[in-house]
Amino acid sequence: MKTKKRQHLTTAILIVFMILLTAGILYNVWAIAQLNSRNASVPSSPTPEATASPTAPAVDPFDPALLAKVTPATSYGHFYYPEADPKNLFIVSSYGLGQYQDFERMQPEASLALMKMIYAAREDGVWIIPASAFRSVKTQEQLFQKQVSKQGSPEQAAKISAPPNYSEHHTGYAVDLADGSSPSSEDITLAFAETKAYQWLTENAKKFGFEMSFPANNQQGVSYEPWHWRYVGSDRARGVFRRARSAAGLE
Predict the structure, then answer these.
(1) What domain range includes position 124?
(2) Could you give the number of structural domains in the chain?
(3) Whole-model pTM?
(4) Which of 93, 99, 233, 236 could form a disulfide with 130 if both were Cys (CB 3.0 to 4.6 A apart)?
(5) Paired sense of beta strands 210-214 and 174-179, if any
(6) SS3 for 67?
(7) Do 146 and 68 contact (CB within 8 A), yes or no?
(8) By three-state DSSP, how is residue 208 classified?
C-alpha cells in the first residue's frame, strides 16, 4: 500500500515538473517574440555613408623629373640619388661572417637580372659574389667620414667614397661584385680587375643590363672601381642614372 502511494507521489511530482518546464519554455518564447516585435517597431537610425578620404597620389622618389630638380645635383663629382625603402628590396646574398655579416639587397628587377647573370657566369666556370648592394644614407655617412679622416679632406675622400645622399648604392640598383675564387682580402680592391669574374663581366654584363659605374678616367673624377656595377636594364633604372650616364656619354 505504501509502495503504491510513493509511486503515485513520484508520478505527480514528475507531472508538476514537466508542467513547470513547459510553462517556462513557452514564457521564454513569448518574451523573445515580444522583444523582437518591440525592436522592429523602433526605426533604426540611418548609417552615414562612408566617404573615402582623399589621398595624394604616391610620389616615386626615383622619378627622373623630380631628380632633375634636386639641388645641388652633384657633390664632389657624385650625383644625387634617393634612398630606397629596404622593405621593397630583395635579398641577393649574404656577405661576411659574424658581426660583419650583411644581407645584401637590391631592387626586384635588378635582383632577378643579377641572379641570371651569376648563374650564367657559373656555367662558364666563373664565381661572382655580390659583396655590397643597397646602402643607407646613415651607413654612407659613416663610411664617408672615415675616408675624410684618412684622406684629410672631403674632396679627396669623395674620390674614393661618395658623400651621403650621393651614392648609387642608395638606390638599390648598384652592387659591388667580387670573385669567389679569390681571397676575401682582395674583395672591393683593384685586384678585382685581374680576376676571371671581372673579365667575364666586361664581356657579358651588358647582356643582363649591368654596366660599370666608374671606369678608369671617368668624367665624374671618381677613382677607378672595377668592382662597382649598376643595373640599367629597366626604364626606371635608366631614369635614375640618366644624369650620370649622360655625363659619361652613354645617353
Answers:
(1) 64-247
(2) 1
(3) 0.76
(4) 93
(5) unpaired
(6) helix
(7) no
(8) helix
